[in-house]
Amino acid sequence: MKRVVATGTFDILHPGHVFYLEESKKLGDELHVIVARDANVKHKPRPVIPEEQRLMMVRALKTVDFARLGSEKDMFEPIEEIKPDIITIGFNQYFDTGKLKDQLNERGIYSEVVKINDYKGQGFSSSRSIMQQILKQRCNETLEK
Length: 145
Ligand SMILES: Cc1cc2nc3c(=O)[nH]c(=O)nc-3n(C[C@H](O)[C@H](O)[C@H](O)COP(=O)(O)O)c2cc1C
Ligand SMILES: Nc1ncnc2c1ncn2[C@@H]1O[C@H](COP(=O)(O)OP(=O)(O)OP(=O)(O)O)[C@@H](O)[C@H]1O
Prior knowledge:
The structure is a single chain. Helices cover about 40% and strands about 15% of the residues. By secondary structure, it is of the alpha/beta class. The longest helix is centred in the C-terminal third of the chain and has 18 residues. It has a single domain, classed as Rossmann fold, CATH 3.40.50. The protein binds flavin mononucleotide and adenosine-5'-triphosphate (ATP). The site of flavin mononucleotide has 18 residues, from strand 1, helix 3 and strand 4.
């Protein structure tokens, strides 16, 4: 049984998320997803959707076998519990795979770290672009009414 861990914020789901999770699942038998805590999303605007709801939506996807909120204090804590064979990193996640592997090894975790490509299909494929479109479209509609 090969366990794979995928991670992310998942604030407003889109086809890029589905692609990342499907590609991650293909690498093993069981897909575990760690959803970022509200308090830890500091590298971009804070999520619109609260963490419990982001978790609920990720958990409902058919590719996902298990999903949980991450730790607020120590990102390696859930990894120590899950003991994945593979950890996938999305194309725009800020982690350097080599450095991450070194940090994991220091904690006695020897998972493989695999980078997943970006989704090349049609439609909105970033949470930010969906939010920008909502603001643009709905603000104009409100002004027109
Ligand atoms: C191996 C690994 C473990 C992580 N564990 C946690 C965690 O326990 N808690 C958390 O809030 N974020 C955790 N994260 C970070 C986020 O889930 C997410 O990757 C980060 O916020 C940047 O991704 P984004 O570009 O999807 O927002 C982890 C990331 C990685 C790579
Ligand atoms: N278009 C995409 N193609 C492939 N993977 C993606 C795509 N968009 C997001 N992912 C991956 O899905 C996971 C969760 O992404 P995240 O929640 O940061 O979404 P996002 O759309 O990139 O957000 P934002 O637009 O706010 O930066 C990350 O591993 C990320 O790399």
